[in-house]
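Run folding on both entries below.
>entry_1
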Amino acid sequence: MGHDKLRKFAENETFSCLLQPSAQELLADGYFHLRDHAVKGHWNQFFAGLPDASLHGSSPQKTSGDAGPFPPQSGGPLPLTSRGRLRFSEATADSAAPGKCNIVLELGCGKGEYTIALAERNLEQNYIGVDIKGARLWKGAKYASEHRLPNVAFLRTRVEFITAFFAPGEVSEVWLTFSDPQFRSENSRLSSPLFLERYRSFLRPGGIVHLKTDSRFLHEYTLAVCRANNLRILAHTTDLYGISEVAPSGSSPMKTSSSVGPHRCASLAVPPLTMPRVARFSGATAAPADSTPEIPPVTREVQTFYEKLFLEQGYPITYLSFVIDHDGPYVSPRDPEEFDSKAWRAAEGPRLLFGHDSAETRRQKLKGA
């Protein structure tokens, strides 16, 4: 382990906005019987304890596109309170009655730039970025601490453990930004029926899931999951920035999109906007193609590092938002009748990541040989 990682891990312990629970405690009763963390149902208290810039005579600093969301700071890190808050002990949880907290989650947030960008645009909303990589979370937690953002928190845990941290109705939205498509494991996809069941346990009625990805495979799979479960689709597009002509959903796969690879940092650069083709749905029935798009402006305003990289290579970015309200268990789309996984996986095509083949591209080349 590099020395810089050790430094970041040590500094992570000083950030009041970063919660790092013990996996051993969560798994004390086994993987299928996770123990609830003390913060579950008490996130309002957690956010109430975060430093507030207004108390220090300033407001959270906004940053522009070229500077990036994490510019160098001159004031030094914010002096923080005891590390006991970081652990969010049972004593802390019992200090006041539980209450609902309006939370937006980003799952697999990486360095947290997307979470930060969302939070800086809406200070009335609380945002939590979730990732397992402490060295990545360090950047977002450091920025939120130094800027005294009162509505940003980070949670270091595996996404599979997410139900241990959020009570029913505590979350209003979930963002999946450039998640791993998980070609070989459906249950590992963050939009699979297994994960939708998890989200339903804490999303309030009408709660929304946003999927922004450069993977046409993952986009089409998620669309098929929505249709198989008759979920209300708010908006979807296979070309968010209108950079190419793409086939409408349900047609033959095209080798024009997507990626595999690690998660994804963000910048606040805003590209020239071209209105893409957008379809709106109610259940599985499409509205007219010229319907007013319901895509949040921030979806285009905030770009991840990898998003910009693949846009430069000419790959379209897709977006899908839907409501997960559903009675009974979620089902998977039938393969290949409702989602042809083999065809859409092949449609991903060869991809380069920093001049090198992606892991999936290497597998395809080996298989072809």
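>entry_2
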Amino acid sequence: MNIAELGSSPNADPLVKTIIEHDLTRHIVELDAYGFTVIPPEKLGTPPDFAERLRNSILNTYERRHGVEVGDWRTADLPTPNERAWELVGEDDVITEAVLNPVVLTMARWHCGQSAILGGTSSIIKPPHEKNYLAIHNDTHGVPPPQAAYTHLVNTSWVLTDYADRDDGPTVFVPGSHRWGRAPAPHETKFWEWEGEDRLFEPVPIEAKAGSLAVWGGNTWHGAMNRNSTGLRVTMVLVWLRSYMQRLSMWGESAVSPERLERYPELHKILGYDHPYPFRDYVDKPDKIADMIAPGQDQFA
């Protein structure tokens, strides 16, 4: 029996079909069981040079915004902190392609519904040989316990340099923590300081080839290892939200050019340009407010 072909769940059916088409079933199971998964490049439908193009675009954007030169990322250090890392969609076609990748959209909408909005984009460029651990946290910021069992937001991160072992400075996760319904307490965050019997839990570092997609829901506890390998760790982070959540970036008119919006029409929807709130004169309010009712009736809407 192929339930997705029955047409009984118009919001869920296309997601299920894409999951099957791209062989993502195992990853959906991992997300449910552990709270995170890594989708390899061969399941993302990207060309062989995609990771290289996207990595170069992220580094070129960093150089242009900060007025510095990186050189060869495989041996480079970071000339200055990456303080202008946000709002990347309008920078380059390859970044827009990464945002609109069908698997990325499926992961976003599986967690946050067909009305999911791109809440923010940023780059992480981690240099070597620094104490740059990232403390354990979850991404459902500002939501007090008990946090809902369903997902308010999801992180889909393009891994653009290999995570081969702990020295590469990979993201680490606490399996099953998405079911605990709360953010970590202060004493649960600095996992690198724990020794022996003082260890509260053992965060799991992910392994991923460049060009992979790491996915986790907002309730999942995670952090990152210190980087000891030579060169830079490069990641592009996409944060997707349910339509009632406050966005990290409000995507003003200058964020994306009219030409890019014309070439990539789905950006109107995922950037929230059609969202009725906050009220704007150019949005058809009665129709759009009616559209907002559906997500309250169907978790995939």
